[in-house]
Amino acid sequence: MFRILSARLAQRRAQRRAQRRAQRRHDREIRGLLRDLERLERRPQRTPRARGWPGSSGHRARTHTSMLLALVLTVLVVTFNPTSTGERLRGMLGLGQDLTFTISDPGGLGYAFAMMQPDGRSPVMWDGCREISYVVNPAGAPAGHLAQVAAAAADLERASGLRLRYAGPTDDRDFGHRSGPFGSAPPVLVAWATPDEVPELAGDVAGVGGAEARSLTPDRLVYVTGMVALDRDGFAEIGARPGGPELQRAVVEHELAHVLGLDHVDDPAQLMYAQTTGQRHLGAGDLAGLAVLGSGPCR
User: Fold this and answer.
1) Domain boundaries in the chain?
2) Cβ distance 3 to 251 under 8 Å?
3) Residues contacting residue 176 through CB under 8 Å, at least 6 positions apart
4) Dmax over Cα atoms in the chain, in whole Å?
5) Strand 112-113 relative to strand 105-106: parallel, antiparallel, unpaired?
6) Which helix (H) or strand (E) element contains residue 15?
7) Which of 12, 56, 89, 255 is the most exposed place for a label (fewest CB within 10 A)?
């Protein structure tokens, strides 16, 4: 999200701090349960032996207890895990959505990640060996929009090492859940819209962007698609200012960086700052964060 004017930044900071505290608390609880399970596995069983295979009763007692603890651990992970994996599992189980939120991890060098892996140690990334295809819906777009998007994509390619490929125009306007059934994932969508179509564009928001992740394994997520929605009227207003086309490109680049996995930072020297400050190009922190996101493994 890129704001034309200052708004609600303090609220976002407080939300991020609360999210990080919740993630740390969740991690401590899970580690404690794992320690308890390990201690139980190592503890000698004193159950009397039954007839049959020697030691069979003790083995069954240990197995049943371990299975019970494992079940409890799984329920806790599913119910309280503040990640997209936990959110999807809760949805399938019909549990409430009020426990879900996205984790942002400060990189310490002027960057932050939009989503972390379930273990909280590394960011969610794209497959480092696959092209990220994107399509552009030209409805409501300004003149020269393809050149602006291409220039932004080229900057991000150089910074991250990821490959972004223009796959052509589209009439697609699905800004919601873009990943389809049976593992299908459409290209990243770039389009211009109004707040009536994308409510997140209301107010002083010039654009919003982000990616959707899919589970490779129970403890590993990977981005598979995403979208950028640019405010049609606000974008036209930016273009009418002195230096407007360059600022328009910066807005597109900011939102595409969200798609690659960067989050907002509180440093106005970075392009990923949430508000306009005259910054037109990636800062040192942006570059460092993109380098990390471009180092993802092949799958």
Assistant:
1) 1-299
2) no
3) none
4) 89
5) antiparallel
6) helix 9-42
7) 56
CA-nearest of 210, 208, 257, 206 to 236 is 206
> One-letter amino acid identity for 104?
S
Please give the Cα distance from 207 to 1 (Å, whole number): 5
pLDDT at 148 over 80: yes
Give the number of residues written for the chain: 299
DSSP H or E run through 116: none
Question: 3-class DSSP state for residue 6?
Answer: coil
Instruction: Check pLDDT > 60 for residue 98.
Output: no
SS3 185: coil
As a whole number of Å, the end-to-end CA separation of the chain is: 29
- Is the predicted pLDDT of residue 52 greater than 90, yes or no? no
Q: Tokens for 158? A: 């150089």
pLDDT at 261 over 60: yes
* pLDDT at residue 101, as a whole number: 28
The least confident of 88-92, 192-196, 201-205, 217-221 is 88-92
**Which residues fall within 8 angstroms of residue 37, CB to CB, at 6 or more apart?**
66, 69, 70, 73
Distances (CA, A) of 218 to 51, 72, 81, 178, 215: 40, 16, 12, 21, 6
pLDDT over 90 for what percent of the chain?
Answer: 50
* CB distance 161 to 296 below 8 Å: no
DSSP letter for 199, please: G
Note the pLDDT of residue 138: 97
How far, in Å, CA of 151 to CA of 155, rounded?
6
The pTM for the full model equals 0.67
Class level of CATH domain 1-299 = alpha beta
Q: Is the dihedral of CA 210, 130, 160, 120 positive or negative?
A: positive
More confident residue, 264 or 73: 264
